[in-house]
């Protein structure tokens, strides 16, 4: 579940960069949340991919 959320957030971040329609720092906050979610998954010993 956590990994799925992280992937969705990364995709939304990339779409925000590509369309140049970003809501200021919000899109970067989503990226940070996604990276933290992936790191938590790795630390807990889960399979990342």
Explain this structure.
By secondary structure, this protein is mostly helical. It has one domain (2-43). Helices cover 73% and strands 0% of the residues. It has two helices and no strands. It has helices spanning 2-19, 26-43. α1 (2-19) packs antiparallel against α2. It is elongated. The model has no long low-confidence stretch (mean pLDDT 74).
Descriptive labels:
single chain, 49 residues, 2 helices, membrane, Lmo0937-like, Lmo0937 family membrane protein
User: Separation of termini?
Assistant: 13 Å
What structural category do the secondary elements indicate? mainly alpha
Number of helices: 2
N to C succession of SSEs? HH
Mean pLDDT across all amino acids: 74
- The number of strands is 0
Outline type: elongated
Q: In this structure, how is the largest beta sheet organized?
A: none
Question: How big a fraction of the residues is strand?
Answer: under 5%
* Poorly predicted runs of 5 or more residues: none
Determine Rg (CA atoms, Å). 12 Å
Fraction of helical residues = over 70%
Q: Please indicate the count of domains.
A: 1
Please give a quick description of this structure:
The protein contains two helices and no strands.
Task: List strands and helices in order, with pairings.
Blueprint: H1 2-19, H2 26-43
Helix pairs in contact: 1-2
